[in-house]
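Annotators were shown the component list below and the corresponding predicted structure, then asked to write short factual statements about the assembly.
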Amino acid sequence: MSRFVPLLGFVLLVALFGFGIWWNTGHDQHEIVSPLINKPAPAFSLPVLGDETQHVSKQQLLGKPYFLNVFGSWCIECVHEHPVLSEQVKNLGLPLVGFNYKDDPKDAAAWLTEHGNPFDRVIVDRDGRAGIDFGVYGAPETFLIDGKGVIRYKHVGPITPEVVEKEFRPALAALAKEGG
Amino acid sequence: MRRLAMLAALCLLPLLAFAQAIQPLPFRDRAEELRFQHLSAELRCPMCQNETLADSNAPIAHDLRRQIFEMMQAGKSDAEIKAYLVDRYSSFVLYKPPVEPQTWLLWFGPLLVLAAGGIVVAVQVRRRSRQAPPVAAIDTEDDW
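Structure shown to annotators:
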């Protein structure tokens, strides 16, 4: 019996390493799971792109769930996700708020003219301070914020059609269920 | 003479690299600067995840260093600054993770493995000493 002990040890090691490989290929290792999920979004009041005298605050957006998409004209992946944002995400029927992150407003406006503007409104976080409160560490990132101002879901990196189907839709379905 | 002066100036040029930190911040004194360096070296940059906030040149590392600096100026303690970052970026930003139920395996796992190995060895030793008669150890060439 005891001669099987080394074999057993070997099998256990194989299982451990196999699990490690499976685990690391199954999720994005660079994604930090946000501690803000299911917590109230941070308060913000940020100028509107194109008219900096106007501000949009968290309070003003309460009442209806919306997507908050962090983007910048300097961000290459944002160009890649742009068509998905303009079609698949837009078709989900929620307001789409653009969060222009660490960008020159002029460049942002030019970028939106060039690629098309899928956003219902765009707010400007020029120096990235509001971004820190949201736990943003790059672009693109997308938040789903519910009518009570709670962050329900976050996606880091470019949105793909697959992400919309597998993550956005279920997150929305969960919201709709709650709403009755 | 003039050439010599030029040469001397050229030789001093590389020293500029020491003077130019990634991001020069207006520290009040040397102690504050050391505290800042110590703290930012303990924190991980969320963007390039194998770099500390002190080393990284990612935009977010820039912003977070500025944030840490401002919080230090506002009189916040190291613990408060860490808590601020953990609230937003999770305990992932700490190079030394806290001891909490989620990280017990990380902290005590090696001990567990060591203990398991120790038990296996102890059991084997006991069993063998019981099986083998004390004097039978003469013809044990091929029997380990």
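Statements collected:
1. DSSP finds six helices and no strands in chain B.
2. Helices of chain B lie at 2-12, 16-19, 30-41, 59-73, 78-89, 104-131.
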